[in-house]
Design the sequence.
């Protein structure tokens, strides 16, 4: 198989994915395995699930802060690393910035130090686009817009981008940082606070009315998970490095998301508006033209198609798991 893939002009590699039991990471692992690569997953299963991990992947249940990570790098010697593990809850980063920094800063440095020591060629980092620019004055917002991270979560993503640049300049470790907008799709954990599509789907299939903060006219840029995965793999395969928005460049309000899910699911429900906490971002929409120009990536899924796929997944999950919990 290996020889055949090389003959076909496809280089197969050993690739390590941190956060490979999570929503985006597990889809990434599946896609890389289907391309013939050998996969190693590091995850502490804090928000991810063992059942998400592709059985063909080599799995280490470890925290990214753990010094034992070194043994994994020495044993497995990956060529490329996707660093997708993180404390992902923005609200929790505000409530406990020290804990957030321990995982998202110190854990990331632990991964990068080991990348250098083990001779890894390239790191792909899951950064944030949605939380990076604050209330931007240009929509869609490009990477050249001033960063204005308003939460410890986003501050730490920006800090790791600076570390990536440092490790490249001093040690030659190549990197691509992907500033994802709001990713949605199958396997998203509806218990989190970020995935409004997953939260709404779970609510309506449990015959509960979804809650919308404020008037629901706040906008986000929703990207389907398969598009995010294609961008991640293209970023690994290209020669260059840098920081790129991965998005659709389309603004969609929370009200529009609710209406679309209601229509496409056929479930009769209504949304309940509750008071918004102060400081919530009103608009977020990112310009992906740099990713298109540099590595030829662009989103393929319409919002409608992505939502239909997501609804189908949540519906089938609820049919199988009668205990009322989707995950
Ligand atoms: N989902 C989005 O809309 C979105 C947008 C921008 C950026 N991102 C980033 O993409 C990455 C993946 O996010 P996701 O939405 O799949 O979230 P997720 O919670 O499903 O995945 C994160 C994974 O990391 C693991 N993890 C967390 N802390 C860890 C630790 N200390 N050690 C080892 N493993 C740990 C979790 O168990 C989980 O499997 C994150 O870095 C996140 O910040 C996500």
Sequence:
């Amino acid at each position: 198989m290996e020889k055949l893939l090389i003959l076909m002009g496809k280089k197969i590699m050993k690739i390590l994915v941190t956060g490979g039991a999570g929503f985006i990471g597990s889809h990434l692992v599946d896609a890389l395995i289907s391309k013939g690569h050998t996969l190693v997953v590091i995850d502490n299963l804090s928000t991810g699930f063992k059942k998400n991990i592709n059985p063909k992947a080599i799995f280490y249940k470890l925290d990214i802060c753990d010094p034992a990570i070194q043994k994994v790098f020495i044993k497995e010697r990956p060529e490329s690393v996707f660093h997708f593990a993180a404390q992902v809850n923005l609200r929790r980063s505000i409530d406990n910035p020290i804990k957030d920094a321990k995982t998202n800063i110190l854990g990331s440095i632990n991964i990068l130090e080991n990348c250098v020591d083990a001779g890894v060629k390239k790191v792909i980092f899951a950064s944030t686009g949605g939380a990076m620019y604050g209330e931007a004055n240009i929509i869609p917002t490009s990477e050249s817009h001033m960063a204005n991270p308003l939460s410890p979560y986003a501050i730490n993503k920006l800090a790791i981008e600076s570390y990536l640049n440092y490790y490249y300049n001093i040690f030659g470790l190549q990197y691509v940082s992907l500033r994802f907008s709001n990713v949605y799709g199958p396997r998203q954990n509806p218990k989190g606070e970020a995935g409004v599509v997953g939260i709404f789907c779970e609510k309506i299939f449990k015959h509960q009315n979804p809650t919308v903060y404020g008037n629901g006219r706040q906008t986000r840029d929703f990207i389907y998970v398969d598009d995010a995965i294609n961008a991640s793999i293209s970023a690994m395969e290209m020669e260059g490095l840098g920081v790129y928005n991965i998005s659709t460049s389309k603004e969609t309000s929370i009200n529009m998301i609710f209406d679309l899910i209601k229509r496409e699911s056929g479930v009769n429900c209504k949304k309940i508006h509750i008071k918004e906490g102060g400081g919530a971002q009103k608009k977020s929409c990112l310009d992906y033209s740099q990713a298109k120009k540099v590595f030829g990536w662009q989103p393929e899924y319409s919002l409608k198609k992505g939502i239909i796929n997501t609804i189908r997944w949540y519906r089938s999950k609820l049919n199988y798991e009668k205990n009322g919990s989707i995950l």
Remarks:
- Residues 19, 21-25, 43-48, 63-65, 84-88, 103, 107, 126, 128, 130, 180, 182-183, 189, 194 surround nicotinamide-adenine-dinucleotide (CB under 6 Å).
